[in-house]
Amino acid sequence: MIVAGATGFAGALAAHLLWRHPQFELVAVTARSELGRPLCALYPRYRVPLALELLEPERLAGIDAAVVAYPHAAAAPTVGELRERGIRVVDLSADFRLRSLANYEQWYGEHPRADLLGEAVYGLTELHREAIAGADIVANPGCYPTAALLALAPLARAGLIADLVIDAKQGISGAGRVFDETTHLSMAGENIVPYKVAAHRHTPEIEEQLALLAPAAGDRHKPLAVQFQAHLVPLDEGELASCYVTTTRPVGAAELRELYTRAYAHEPFVELLLSGPPGVLEVRETNYCRVFAAADAHTGKVIAFGAIDNLWKGTSSQAVQNLNVMFGLPETAGLQ
Amino acid sequence: MIVAGATGFAGALAAHLLWRHPQFELVAVTARSELGRPLCALYPRYRVPLALELLEPERLAGIDAAVVAYPHAAAAPTVGELRERGIRVVDLSADFRLRSLANYEQWYGEHPRADLLGEAVYGLTELHREAIAGADIVANPGCYPTAALLALAPLARAGLIADLVIDAKQGISGAGRVFDETTHLSMAGENIVPYKVAAHRHTPEIEEQLALLAPAAGDRHKPLAVQFQAHLVPLDEGELASCYVTTTRPVGAAELRELYTRAYAHEPFVELLLSGPPGVLEVRETNYCRVFAAADAHTGKVIAFGAIDNLWKGTSSQAVQNLNVMFGLPETAGLQ
Amino acid sequence: MIVAGATGFAGALAAHLLWRHPQFELVAVTARSELGRPLCALYPRYRVPLALELLEPERLAGIDAAVVAYPHAAAAPTVGELRERGIRVVDLSADFRLRSLANYEQWYGEHPRADLLGEAVYGLTELHREAIAGADIVANPGCYPTAALLALAPLARAGLIADLVIDAKQGISGAGRVFDETTHLSMAGENIVPYKVAAHRHTPEIEEQLALLAPAAGDRHKPLAVQFQAHLVPLDEGELASCYVTTTRPVGAAELRELYTRAYAHEPFVELLLSGPPGVLEVRETNYCRVFAAADAHTGKVIAFGAIDNLWKGTSSQAVQNLNVMFGLPETAGLQ
Amino acid sequence: MIVAGATGFAGALAAHLLWRHPQFELVAVTARSELGRPLCALYPRYRVPLALELLEPERLAGIDAAVVAYPHAAAAPTVGELRERGIRVVDLSADFRLRSLANYEQWYGEHPRADLLGEAVYGLTELHREAIAGADIVANPGCYPTAALLALAPLARAGLIADLVIDAKQGISGAGRVFDETTHLSMAGENIVPYKVAAHRHTPEIEEQLALLAPAAGDRHKPLAVQFQAHLVPLDEGELASCYVTTTRPVGAAELRELYTRAYAHEPFVELLLSGPPGVLEVRETNYCRVFAAADAHTGKVIAFGAIDNLWKGTSSQAVQNLNVMFGLPETAGLQ
Q: Which of A239, B32, D235, D327 has its CA 20 to 30 A from that of A230?
């Protein structure tokens, strides 16, 4: 097992989780800078003593899996190269999340390895567990789609979503190892900041997946346009998706409870709340997603919340969950 | 001038602002506890040396105005008593915000002084400036309605709101001088917490005011049911209302800009942004509201943001703004 | 294994660590309030499903160990009762930390079970490992003494401390599950607050332990009066002791390095830094203590830093470390 | 009035305070980057509409004063040039704070304008008010020296300081508009970080000023070596100096109170506390320094605390206080 791109928040956490994993063996962490430094010098909390090295695919004999934590567009060529050497990959970038090449090109530009799009499986474990088990390329979901789709999947499967607003809030770690006004404590610390108004790239990812969940073929052809808005709030790790659903028909509390219980009663990492909404602190540094849904008699809408740790279930621990599935291990291995 | 109920966050800040006000003279701060202690012992930042005393209306000769900072239901009798002694009141509670007694009873219970409802003016200064000038009882708005209504008023006046979701986020000061799990730094500090799901009392206040703004009489009879949801995020002061508007007809960027510019070009305390949304830090400890609106071509919706300091424009500095209007002073006196 | 007093921060974390411990079996969590509620309802992060119950010592057949997390003076009688039933106890309170009854009475008042003082072992694992292994009552150290003593032990053993100032900083979790001005985010959040000036009860604990470490018998008879000062700073978990040592003779960098390396080279939970001081985030939610010492050529003093998580190594994970030692398990069991 | 170097935190705040000042007229803000942008685009909270421009001294006819907010070594040449054009300067850098050129060279390197050293006055207003009134170059103190010297001056003047440890804590704004690991909320937010161990450049500044305050000439020749240590803690603005004084003779509570009361009874910006130490929130965004001193009967030492806002009294508002003194205005003008 290797982690390619371990200097960013996502790659470093993936390395940490794999280093302490009882079954996987992390043998290398790669980067394009900080070469030779042990990862624990950059991330003291993670205590991974491996030194950062350049990724040299030709030296990867014996490696069976990799987590790739590169920016979009940079990831796809490396994923392809690893794949061609027989290495199974969980890709943390957006490069293989969208099924539609047109969607990718509209939101991200040209795709470096469009030929591999059909091969990749969307790695929201709870939604695509079986396909992930057999996949060679798993496209780890965005953090916002993870929280939103787990909150919405029971409604989507029942064909109940007529219109949808998602208002998401995330801690500053969501901005990554980026040093600017967005992350400076004096500027971000007592602030609430909406960003990418009407333009967040997680939108098509949510729309595609909701369409796939919808029951009728007809729905898939004209996917719902989702109103998605992200905000940064002053904490480190944590993310909440508040989803406001105009339903296709009236939905009451009893039906809601049944839909959600049926969906999540046996999920090891989804904690369904019945009496009130979750706070993100409840899932901090875990792979859990907490979900709560309520019917609003006043408006007729359904409100559904999904709370995760954006770096864990939203990124790196879900990557490990997917690797567990890919390699036939207990899904919770190394995650509890 | 007196502040009745000065031990809470709202009353204490009102006292601070009035103490340093160039034209008003604050002569007493009252409370039911901490009697005899100078207010600055409880709130060192505010440096108001007046000692807390019991409110004894019979001793208020010569007082011409009061800010009442009591909880709802407790406020109305005192407001009434002060009013009967000829004292003009800005009431920070919810007791006189709703025009409809039925609405009040549904959300708050029995009204202690329903007889005064018709006399009170809703104190969102920018919307009701003229009525406030002549009012004896001004019902200071809730903080969420302040941010939301300023973000939405131009759309409401144009009859453009067909459906509405408001997702609001607020700092912990919004919970007030309350000591529990909600405000403990170890529990609130790295958290995002939705509260009062489908049940926040600011909902009818927003609905009533939007109905009043609507152009056609018909609209007022069947007011829009607003989906309003509040969240606590880990900062002290600051509040953002993110408003998602399904419009009655397509609205483009140019029309939006014109509507908002016309509404706010001459408002001293509304800062209209044109290039991007506000962060709440930009208005911290000020009476400003920053507003931004955008049309989303993808969904057809309009997104409007209102950012305020929940304790300032959301509560106490707006009370001072109203007092300025009531007493014929420059509206910005003591607020810049 | 039981945890008595599991509703406070320390007891709840001890329960969490023991619940997930690979060798110990946590069978009960007790409290005087919240009876019948699962601990995970109070502390969702800890996911301990056991319901809180009253401590009824007569029903404890088969229990071989307990963590007692009561306030001082309340703890001693329960510790005694458990001890008399053959249960080995780690006591998180101050009741058995001081060897000198006179010291206890001066700082805490009358001792409810002074007869047991001689039996208790001071549970700073790194300093008293062998005695802990055979002890029936282990007095878990205060968090400040833990950080300070680990930073200072190599100097103390070498008889190098002539005078000592300890300036300690701690996150708000150090105030515990207490709801008041000290912990309210709006009051604590942008604050730095010294407390208990010249009066902190951890002072005699540090003084006694430093005297025990000193090489010459003479030193023990007239222990050093330590200047200890605590501060609350706005984070959740984390604690730093900055120790300023006037030395009995000049000490250079090489000697310092040798003293500290010799002391800590083989300690599993002490991370000795050589190039710069630790930040507390590096040890958050771990049982590690990070130590750094430097000689200041300008003043001739030595500065030593100890960084811990006040709730973990400072309290509950050190309790587990001690339990591991008491029951002959690997010292790191359940702590990595 | 101009502010040279207005893009950093200190210069921007100085511009804000001068822009709203009732007597001074701020006519220009200069910088080497962001030219043409209004300062309020960079610092929305400050609402200074002036556009940033290059400093062109030849165009400064009619300007009588400047605040220079450059890094050390960069400041001195500009200060000299402005001085030569008859402009009185408050310099926020370290370039003119030290009286001893040898000290400067040891801690900062070569001095670009050593010829002006003798002309500059150290701008801790409370200590050098009279000299400041007549000065053309005022060297605004470092933030740590401001807090520490105000806490210590009464003891220093009485010749009571035999040995001294200063442990200082500061919010992240102290790191300035610097974007790196030090200021990223995810790295700084739940952290306490000591920095510049045994090497902080504010040390000689404190030592020189304490020597100047000492009563006997002899003391001045062999200044005390001060143990000064700085820490970053996770808030925005705020700074506390905790000073531990070994006294030259026993000092009791009554004498302490008399010394401090005599020193500060008439100071408009020093708030002497008598019953307990200050928290930094009490002085946030003010020019106040709160001071508290206590005698520790246990150790015989005196503990003195100074709490300020590092950007206000620690930097920019003290610059305005000095300008008020230099131009014969009420010392509190524009600062209350």
A: D235
B189 touches chain C (CB under 8 A): yes
* β-bridge mates for residue D170, sequence order: D232, D239
- Verify whether the Cβ–Cβ distance A277 to B194 is below 8 Å: yes
Are the C-beta atoms of D140 and D123 separated by less than 8 Å? yes
Judge whether residue A17 has pLDDT over 90. Answer: yes
Measure the N-to-C terminal CA separation of chain B; round to a whole number of Å.
20
Q: Would the CB atoms of A169 and B192 count as touching at under 8 Å?
A: yes
Decide if C192 and D279 are in contact by the 8 Å CB cutoff.
yes
B121-147 per-residue burial string, b: 16 or more CB within 10 A, e: under 16: bbbbbbbbbeebeebbbbbbbbbbbbb
Inter-residue contact B60 to B85 (CB < 8 Å): yes
Residue A142 pLDDT > 80: yes
Contact map slice: D 273-332 vs B, CB within 8 A: 279, 281-282, 284-286
- What per-residue confidence (pLDDT) applies to C1? 96
The owner of tokens 């709160």 is: D290
Give chain A's end-to-end CA distance (angstroms, integer).
20
Neighboring chain C residues of B236 at a CB cutoff of 8 Å: 185-186, 189-190
Residue C175 pLDDT greater than 80, yes or no: yes
In the structure, what pLDDT confidence band is assigned to residue C114 with cuts at 50, 70 and 90?
very high
Considering chain A, what percentage of its residues have pLDDT values greater than 70?
A: 98
The whole-angstrom distance between A131's CA and the closest CA on chain B is: 31
Looking at residue D218, its pLDDT comes to 53
Reading the block at residue C244, the tokens are 């300023």
Note whether C224 contacts D: Cβ–Cβ < 8 A.
no
- The DSSP call for residue B54 is -
Structure tokens given for D330? 């009420």
Whether residue B95 is predicted with pLDDT greater than 70 in this model: the reply is yes
Residue B243 annotated among the catalytic residues of the structure: no
The chain B residue lying nearest D186, using CA atoms, is B190
What integer pLDDT is reported at residue C158 of this predicted model?
97
> What would the pLDDT profile of A197-231 be if each residue is shown by its tens digit?
998 999 999 999 999 999 875 544 567 999 999 99
Distance separating alpha carbons of residues C177 and D315, to the nearest angstrom: 37
Q: What is the mean predicted confidence (pLDDT) over A100-126?
A: 96
Residues of D in contact with A173 (CB under 8 A): 186
The confidence band for C80, taking pLDDT boundaries of 50, 70 and 90, is: very high
Sorting pLDDT into bands at 50, 70 and 90, what band is B269? Answer: very high
